[in-house]
Design brief:
single chain; alpha+beta; 30% helix; 39% strand
Length: 128
Amino acid sequence: MIVGNRVTKIEAAREKQEPRKGLNFKINIKDAKVTGKRVDITYEYSADYTEDVGYIRMEGVIAAEEEKKLLDEIKDEWSKKQRLPQSYAEVILNAINYFGGVNGVLAARVVNLSPPIVPPRFSLSKKE
């Protein structure tokens, strides 16, 4: 269970005064350190506005407390392949995406960029 997120670095810039046409996201897990019942996951998050309009970059650490079995899996997978177990990676990537979006809104406002939030897709179905 995720018990905290700490942003350690944030950088934002507006390079051009053109409207946003697209947004590319990148998340990089840099480290996973298991200590006792806790795992600290160091990450990088970036939102790059297409056509070099601007960018938002963050670094941080997610802290989570997990069961011993999962901690052993995380430690083993990270030491062998430098990645998280697939089922756990999904949880962590979604959390980083959430934290990046929430904190990115504040950074975007300062440099007059649109928020780095991708709206959900809607699908219509026929009424029966």
